[in-house]
UniProtKB/TrEMBL annotation:
Keywords: Aminotransferase, Pyridoxal phosphate, Transferase. Belongs to the DegT/DnrJ/EryC1 family. Signal peptide: none annotated. It comes from Nguyenibacter vanlangensis. InterPro entries: DegT/StrS_aminotransferase, PyrdxlP-dep_Trfase, PyrdxlP-dep_Trfase_major, PyrdxlP-dep_Trfase_small. One of its GO terms (molecular function) is transaminase activity. It comes from the Bacteria. It holds the Pfam family DegT_DnrJ_EryC1. This is DegT/DnrJ/EryC1/StrS family aminotransferase. Its EC number is 2.6.1.-. The lineage of its organism: Bacteria, Pseudomonadati, Pseudomonadota, Alphaproteobacteria, Acetobacterales. SUPFAM superfamilies: PLP-dependent transferases. The keyword Transferase applies.
Amino acid sequence: MTAQHPAPDRPVPDSAPIAFLDLPAQQARLGDAVRRRVDAVMAHCRFVMGPEVAELERALAAYSGAAECVGVSSGTDAIQIVMMAEGIGPGDAVFLPAFTYTATAEVPLLLGATPVFVDVDPRTFQIDPDSLRARIADIRAAGRLRPRAIIGVDLFGQPAPWPALRTIAAHEGLFLMDDCAQSFGGALSGRKLGREATATTLSFFPSKPLGAYGDGGAILTDDPDRAELYRSLRTHGEGRTRYEVLRTGMNGRLDTLQAAVLLAKLEGFDAELARREAIARAYDAGLAGHVAIPARVPDSASAWAVYAVLTEDTPAREALQARLQGRGVPSAIYYPRPLHLQPAYQAHHDGARLPVAEDLASRILALPIHPELTDGEVARVIAAVQGQG
Ligand SMILES: *Cc1c(COP(=O)(O)O)cnc(C)c1O
């Protein structure tokens, strides 16, 4: 049974609005394969921890090269389980980039720990190792919190600067986690993401490169003891038998139905990644000189969850967004506000300025990049950004 690959030459009327995320087109392409997998679950009725969960865990471990994979209920719960396993809690500082999705920061707070926001690189948008060193020094000097962990985020499909993060974590004695929610399928130095840190968390939210049809997530690790702890924590802290409770855990299991959907989608995942890369290259070629195109992290491959350009300033971004909208081209702002300036987090922030994150938030704009885009639609996006046609 071969996966249905993207069809960039299929006819789409020029006047049709372009979708930012095209789940109906994805359904038309993959629906039959997904339904076969879902029907199998409907037949065996093991909706919680059915055989598809273990099958998906094996497939994701094989894909990433990690020794262990633990399927969980979402990317956020994956982060929470990893942090709980390290015993992170009140008085602990968890360092993470200010320019990321809110989920990365909310988990430390839910556990009573404090997120410490770090600035990012102005070209790659990834966490900046120099800022990380400075923020760790700030926290040690203030003496109020105990530095415990670093969460590196692979933002927009590209890898964080892992060699530098590993050096800092080892030198400072900190636990290192990879929030790879946006970037599964990406690679660094020829190696798929999933083994850059002690634990790597994935999200299968429908808009991520490998998306389910609902919530889902996973944790990758090479450490069998941690994997066992993650399995216990995702099922109420259970021990060898269901009614032996070893620790406070949670209900954090991956649904069998979502595992079934993901098994069907994993078959065509590499073809989707190749299509995203081709679209990114077409954008690079067509948009350079009109807006600042995204810099590539050296020696890496992106999963292209997001293709983000930079305009000169906020008014230029507003003008571009309006022009795109007028031509049926959607765009989105990731992220309009860095986390240290969000109402929910401001009170936990020590007041440090993080100028790069603040500047990016004021002029970044994401263009549609998904495998269902046709060549004609890609050309329309480029013409609309150029202001032509
Ligand atoms: C989406 C996302 C998450 C959360 O994943 P969910 O599955 O939606 O809980 C965490 N971190 C980052 C960087 C994300 O983009």
